[in-house]
Amino acid sequence: MGSNPLLGVLFHWLGGLASGSFYVPFRRVKNWAWETYWLVGGFFSWIIAPWILACVMTNDLSGVLHEAPRSSVFWAYTFGVLWGIGGLTFGLTMRYLGMSLGMAVALGYTAAFGTLIPPIFRGQFTAEVLGTHSGRTILFGVLVCLFGIALAGAAGISKEHEMSEAAKRAAIKEFNLKKGLFLATFSGVMSACFAYGLAAGDPIKALAIHHGTKTLWQGLPVLVILLLGGFTTNFIWCALLNIRNRTFYQYFSSRISDQQSARASEPILENATDAPAEEMAELSSEPSTTGAKVPMASNYFFSALAGTTWYLQFFFYTMGETQMGRYKFSSWTLHMASIIIFSTLWGIALKEWNGTGPRTKFLVACSLLVLVGSTMIVGYGNYLAVSAVS
User: Where are the domains of the chain?
Assistant: First the structure.
């Protein structure tokens, strides 16, 4: 199966749609603390869905993982752990910089580092990126994507300026520019480790093809290892929160304890690569009555649905990557741009931007147009590379 950049862009858009939408089912979860529904969803995101789809769509998964070079397995898992740490510090970035500025800075670092470091590490950047017309076109698309992210951040900042002083203080109670920028940098770099983990898994992809797996599904065995690393970090954090907040009982009991913490007391700590709209993160937080009934079946179902939807972003990502030819590193830019596009569209659909002024709405529209344009430019650059080879 040859490369098809247009199809690759479509796959990345589908991945962005999945990432931008996964919080919708979480909105239906009632009377569970963040750490509870996040971990339940995480079992499906990082364990169940990756294993099931890899077993179904690839040949001899156990044989591939058994023969995989230990160094490749080690680095894919380790980068998954580091990516998970980036997700936790992302929540602190929001605390000290606010949603708009914090997300713009963290996502900018994530997009830049996740896209450019792999070809630089492989020694391909000068010859194959700067030294070719197709490579320079893709690099221009990356810069356009970063500009689109900056516009999205500017739209958020403009929205915050329109808020009253009381609302601003409520939104960012602990604003600290120095601390926030440091954490945004750390979070952005750590979150980009997901791209490094996928690159470290290249020998595993080659083994999957050797065992008869179709090119389109070659990345699924890597996701099994990489997401196990992410699960490790998130499991430890959620378990610690379960202990601290005394919420372990929520996995098994349909009654609300009088010791249950308010749902709003814990920040949303999704990874920077999730980038949900603000309304996506604002889950139902009605006061709970001690002894009230908890919809256990519904909570498990919607958490599982959210987790599976989250996984689909990287399911489609690995498919899109196979279509980008020798410039598959550009997949990370396409992924980031697509996430912000669809999360912004969800924000519009959920009336996040209602009541804002013309300047803010103009910036939102410009960010969408620029980000869509960046995906087209990157896709065109890959098309030029494929055309040159053929």
Answer: 5-389
